[in-house]
């Protein structure tokens, strides 16, 4: 079955994933305007799956609607990046503390599936999906549904920041991220709150420094 013959739901998913990957990789540059008609011609589909994908991307804070003008890839703001990193630091450290204190042994053991990260030769979009899933799993294990939901919302806004940070640091950086994930899992499974909080803090802070340094480049932020 070709792309054009796929079932409607599969077409929607395919269009959404490809658009999301283009935004994360900055192939669709921050601040650039896009039109439903142009995307429909590119993917050779009707406007319906395009509109569905754009609305979903808007919910993830990657697209913004311009009344009577179409859509725009949301610019990457240094001020927004600082605020979101502050929010992530607060939420993630609280999630980590609750996992140490309250998570079931089964929930903590389940984090073992993130010990093996994707190979260094995989597409960055796939690596970012692994990274997002790992941090969301910690939020879920916190046992507080409202806290987990707030953390997930912030984590989902981090994909472009993660792309910027990981792309800047290269394969070595991805290997370091993976090692930090494993170290955090070890600390959580040992119920070592002090160590787990320190690892989480350093992990987020290192990403923040790399992203803010990169965002100072005017080719990244229009």
Give a brief outline of the structure.
This protein is mainly α and 222 residues long.
Order of neighbouring strands in the sheet with most strands: 1-3-2
Radius of gyration using CA atoms only: 19 Å
Span between termini:
40 Å
How confident is the prediction overall: mean pLDDT? 86
**Estimated helix fraction:** 55-70%
Query: Considering the protein shown, what is the CATH homologous superfamily of the largest domain?
Result: GntR ligand-binding domain-like
Number of helices: 9
Beta-strand percent range: under 5%
What is the count of β-strands?
3
Q: In one word, what is the shape?
A: globular
Order of helices and strands: HEHHEEHHHHHH
Give start-end ranges of low-pLDDT stretches.
Answer: 1-5
CATH class of the largest domain: Mainly Alpha
Count of separate structural domains: 2
Structure description:
- With 222 residues, the protein is mainly alpha-helical.
- The chain folds into two domains: 3-73, Winged helix-like DNA-binding domain superfamily/Winged helix DNA-binding domain (Arc Repressor Mutant, subunit A, Orthogonal Bundle), CATH 1.10.10.10; 78-215, Four Helix Bundle (Hemerythrin (Met), subunit A) (Up-down Bundle).
- The chain is 68% helix and 5% strand.
- The chain has nine helices and three strands, in the order αβααββαααααα.
- It has helices spanning 8-24, 36-43, 47-59, 78-102, 105-109, 124-141, 145-156, 159-189, 193-215, and strands at 33-34, 63-66, 70-73.
- The chain has a three-stranded antiparallel sheet with strand order 1-3-2.
- A hairpin with a 3-residue loop joins strand 2 and strand 3.
- Helix 1 crosses helix 3 (47-59), helix 4 runs antiparallel to helix 9 and helix 6 (124-141) runs antiparallel to helix 7 (145-156).
- The longest helix has 31 residues, at 159-189.
- It is globular, with a radius of gyration of 19 Å.
- It starts with 7 loop residues before the first helix and ends in a 7-residue tail after the last helix.
- The relative contact order is 0.13.
- The model is unreliable at 1-5 (pLDDT under 50).
């Amino acid at each position: 079955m070709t792309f054009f013959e796929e079932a409607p739901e599969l077409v929607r998913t395919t269009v959404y994933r490809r658009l999301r990957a283009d935004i994360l990789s900055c192939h669709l540059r921050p601040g650039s305007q896009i039109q439903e008609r142009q995307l429909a011609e590119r993917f050779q589909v009707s406007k319906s799956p395009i509109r569905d994908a754009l609305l979903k991307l808007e919910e993830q804070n990657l697209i913004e609607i311009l009344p009577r003008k179409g859509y725009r890839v949301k610019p990457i703001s240094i001020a927004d990046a600082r605020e979101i990193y502050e929010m992530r630091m607060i939420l993630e450290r609280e999630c980590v503390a609750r996992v140490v204190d309250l998570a079931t042994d089964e929930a903590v053991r389940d984090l073992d599936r993130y010990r093996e990260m994707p190979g260094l030769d995989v597409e960055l979009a796939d690596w970012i999906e692994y990274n997002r899933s790992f941090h969301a799993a910690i939020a879920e294990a916190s046992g507080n549904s409202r806290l987990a939901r707030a953390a997930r919302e912030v984590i989902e806004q981090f994909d472009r920041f993660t792309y910027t940070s990981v792309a800047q640091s290269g394969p070595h950086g991805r290997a370091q991220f993976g090692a930090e994930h494993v170290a955090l899992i070890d600390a959580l499974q040992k119920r070592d709150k002090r160590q787990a909080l320190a690892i989480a803090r350093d992990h987020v802070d290192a990403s923040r420094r790399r992203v803010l340094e990169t965002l100072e480049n005017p080719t990244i932020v229009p």
